[in-house]
Amino acid sequence: MLKGKRPVSVTFASGETVETPTWKKAVQTILKHCNGQPDMHERLMQLRGKVFGRQRTILGKDPEGMDVPIQIDKDLYFEAKFDTEALLTMIEKKVLEPVGYDFSGIQRFFMLAPGKATGVLGISEGKK
C-alpha cells in the first residue's frame, strides 16, 4: 500500500534516476521514458483515444475531457485524476502493458514521512 507515502525519485533499469516529488510527476517521468523509445512512441500514438476509464479518456490526443491531464508529448496526454494506487494501476495495466513496455527494472524510491525512513518499490509492488 502506498497511502501516505511520497515518491522521491524513479530509477530506470539503465541506472538513470529522475527526481519525482509527486506521484503524478513519477507517472509522467515513466511515460516520457517509454515515449522516448521510437517503437514505444508509435505504439502510444496508436493507443491514444482507445484507452478509457469509467467516464474519461485515459490516453488521448488532447487534454479535452480530462480532469488532470499530464502532457507526455505533443498530441499525447494521460489522465492523472486518480488516487495513487489507481494511478499506478492505470499506467501499468492500461498503457505500459498494452504497448509492450518493459517496466520490470523500474524502481520508485519513496519516503514514508518527511525526514523519516525511505524504501524502494518496483512499479508493480505495494498495490495490494
What this model shows, in words?
The protein has 128 residues and is an alpha+beta fold. Helices cover 30% and strands 27% of the residues. It is built from 3 helices and 8 strands, in the order ββααββββαββ. It has helices spanning 23-35, 38-47, 84-99, and strands spanning 6-11, 17-19, 51-52, 57-60, 69-73, 76-79, 107-111, 118-122. A 4-stranded antiparallel sheet has the order 2-1-7-8, covered by helices on one side. A hairpin with a 5-residue loop joins β1 and β2. α1 (23-35) runs parallel beside α3 (84-99). It is globular, with a radius of gyration of 14 Å. The model has no long low-confidence stretch (mean pLDDT 84).
Shape: globular
SSE string, helix = H, strand = E?
A: EEHHEEEEHEE
Count the DSSP helices: 3
Report how far apart the termini are: 6 Å
Oligomer: single chain
The chain-level mean pLDDT equals 84
Which percent bin holds the helix content?
25-40%
Number of E-state strands:
8
What topology does this entry show?
Elements (H helix, E strand, L loop, with lengths): L5 E6 L5 E3 L3 H13 L2 H10 L3 E2 L4 E4 L8 E5 L2 E4 L4 H16 L7 E5 L6 E5 L6
Helix pairs in contact: 1-3
